[in-house]
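so my prof wants the structure for this chain in the tokens format not the other one, which i didnt know existed until like an hour ago. anyway here's the sequence
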Amino acid sequence: MGPKVSIIILNWNGLEDTIECLESLKKITYPNYEIIVVDNGSRGNDAQVLRERFGDHVHLIRNEKNYGFAGGNNIGMKYALDNSSPDYFLLLNNDTIVDSSFITEMVKVAETDPTIGIAGAKVYYYSEPERLQSVWAKINLWTGQPLYTPRLVAEGIKEMEIDRGQYDSIREVDWVTGCCFLIKKEVVETIGLLDEGYFCYWEDTDYCIRTTRGGYKIVYVPEAKVWHKGGRTSKKITGLGCYYGVRSRFCFMRKHATKWQYLCFLIYFFGLYLWLATGYYLVFHRRPRLVFSYWRGVMNGLFTSEAEAKFYSEP
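here's what i got, hopefully its the right format
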């Protein structure tokens, strides 16, 4: 049967995406898994439709409010720990579809070494299935800027590389994207759950650095393939992605950087990066409201506690 994998999927007003993701999971070849769908306070009847359509194929948890990416996934992981004792947790974004063997490939690699704590997939663009969206990144604590592969050209703009086999080797990395995140149960028991202080964005980066500092490895598994739409949740509220992306970056740096690394980051950010990002939102997007959200995220990231720094709240 193989190790048991608890697949955890968040839904927040994303019914069509979640249905498509769950339908793709019906085709996977891995035999020993469960699916836990956490409805993170959707306003409509998403939870009811999912329960009626998928029945016993999924376990559905319905939250009364949106606890964010970290909080929602933590609720799913806590349920699995209390009720099914999995060997692995797979955090999977609801706006993905998956290759039938993706879990098989990740588990196979993770089982080869007890020090492997997290495994990640090769992620393609959903709209352009041969182009790579994400494979891995190196975390630079002097600039607060992950060095993504494929390369990040500017704020929100990535090189559109076609997969020609250039990233087909299993390798140990600093970071893999949280849209497809296989975590050994031992890691969760050792370092804990996701940090809910981020609400959304950078919690996967935070978890990766906590994992490596806890003595575990993070590996990229090229034979595990996922297609990701990207930004489906953050686009539901104008400015949410801009705000939390930069606010969470400051939270991450304040938590993990040394005093000198944080000072270097501030010089880099306010001397260069802030102005590049502002120009990107003004010139490329032509949306001043995004600039306001971005600057608000900067200010809250610098000076405000998490409890006071919420962008999103229930009506």
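also thought this was worth mentioning. The chain has a mean pLDDT of 90.
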